[in-house]
Amino acid sequence: MSAKRRRASSTNDSSSSKQTKRTKFTLEHAVAPSVSKSGVVLVTGAGDVGQLGLGSDILEKSRFTLVNLEHDIVDVYAGGMHTVCLTREGKVLTFGCNDEGALGRVTSDKEDSEFTAGEVELPDEVIQISAGDSHTAALLKDGRVFTWGTFRDSHGNMGLTPKGNEKFPYEIFHDQVVVKIASGADHLVCLTAKGEIYTCGCAEQGQLGRTTERGSGRTARSGAGVDQLGKLLYPAPISLKPSLRLHFDDVWAGTYATFAKVAGQNNIYVFGLNNYYQIGLKTSQPQFLPKLSKDFSKYKWKFISGGQHHTLALDENGVTYAIGRKEYGRLGLGAESDDAAELTAIPTLKDKKIVSVCCGSATSFSVTETGDLYGWGMGTVGQLGTGEEEDCFVPTLIKSKQLIDRQVFKVSSGGQHTVILAATANNNKGDTT
């Protein structure tokens, strides 16, 4: 009888543990959006809670309208029912719904102050902003991240921390230098200088990438002494096999999903809601742990933006791709198109050099290198800015008196409103026509 072969012990083999140890890694270049160009802010859509920043008398617009601000603005972000602006000086301005603290400032001392822009007090210069349904985040130039507002799940308000909502900027963790942030509806993603990804917030659709389905809810049973709500709300690294030794150099968030690019590669790892194949996996089940998307990994991406049930992606050649649900025309593939289970280039944009794309909940936008804005998808409250309240099934050039002689260079779409940045030679300061 031959001798039994002994199985190597994984606990005693020191060489094995060395092989799976993550190597030291530092991102050489920041991947945060460019804030080198400033412009004026224009808005369209629903403004019933102040998210248009046009005052309490204007509750809806169907074409883009200028917001009078005293600052040069370098970035804008539309949350669910609020808007965030970043000034050239690195200050943050907010307006819109403040019921759960998403504005990060006091609005009770003056009537209707949430309907106009106000500054958020932060300890240093801000270089990036993001926002979800009821939260806002700011990345400071020294790598610190401050957030305010709240996250929500199927049970309602989760709080921003286990203590509850945070109505003023709160530093979420102190031991990491962050180079980029991204917000979904109810989760926040942070990319660190070490190439690691930290997430916090709601995990019910898998968007945190670090819990099993059973452990994704706030009522899940955890080990003795484990604060389950704190486990979700405090930032922690996504769950990766140590043997992969992965580092990342870019990250994007969809409404209920996350996309992470492997450093120095085209590989994209995804996790979150996939009921319409919007994160590029072949199963319609939610993905709770990071998984390589072969479809997304075929291309070199400049930007990825995810809505509720669809995703837009812009490759390095300026080609725009869509994937996911067709309803309301959000894919831009025509009224007779089916849901897209694979990334599909949008035919009507193929001859245009696109430099930026954006998804709202059920809207889509692209910006050309010449500053033209195209929109498609749901238009029920004027959030496309076409002047009508009809859905658009193909990319439609957005025309407006306010856009004459202005070139759009950034766009962000929220629940029912859209905000853009546009510039001329002098930014048309003081122009209110």
Automatic annotation (TrEMBL):
<dbReference type="GO" id="GO:0005737">
    <property type="term" value="C:cytoplasm"/>
</dbReference>
<feature type="domain" description="RCC1-like">
    <location>
        <begin position="41"/>
        <end position="420"/>
    </location>
</feature>
<keyword id="KW-0344">Guanine-nucleotide releasing factor</keyword>
<keyword id="KW-0677">Repeat</keyword>
<dbReference type="GO" id="GO:0005085">
    <property type="term" value="F:guanyl-nucleotide exchange factor activity"/>
</dbReference>
<feature type="repeat" description="RCC1">
    <location>
        <begin position="195"/>
        <end position="264"/>
    </location>
</feature>
<protein>
    <recommendedName>
        <fullName>RCC1-like domain-containing protein</fullName>
    </recommendedName>
</protein>
<feature type="repeat" description="RCC1">
    <location>
        <begin position="318"/>
        <end position="370"/>
    </location>
</feature>
<dbReference type="InterPro" id="IPR058923">
    <property type="entry name" value="RCC1-like_dom"/>
</dbReference>
<feature type="repeat" description="RCC1">
    <location>
        <begin position="371"/>
        <end position="424"/>
    </location>
</feature>
<feature type="repeat" description="RCC1">
    <location>
        <begin position="266"/>
        <end position="317"/>
    </location>
</feature>
<dbReference type="Pfam" id="PF25390">
    <property type="entry name" value="WD40_RLD"/>
</dbReference>
<feature type="repeat" description="RCC1">
    <location>
        <begin position="143"/>
        <end position="194"/>
    </location>
</feature>
<dbReference type="InterPro" id="IPR000408">
    <property type="entry name" value="Reg_chr_condens"/>
</dbReference>
<feature type="repeat" description="RCC1">
    <location>
        <begin position="90"/>
        <end position="142"/>
    </location>
</feature>
<dbReference type="InterPro" id="IPR051553">
    <property type="entry name" value="Ran_GTPase-activating"/>
</dbReference>
<feature type="region of interest" description="Disordered">
    <location>
        <begin position="1"/>
        <end position="24"/>
    </location>
</feature>
<feature type="repeat" description="RCC1">
    <location>
        <begin position="39"/>
        <end position="89"/>
    </location>
</feature>
<dbReference type="InterPro" id="IPR009091">
    <property type="entry name" value="RCC1/BLIP-II"/>
</dbReference>
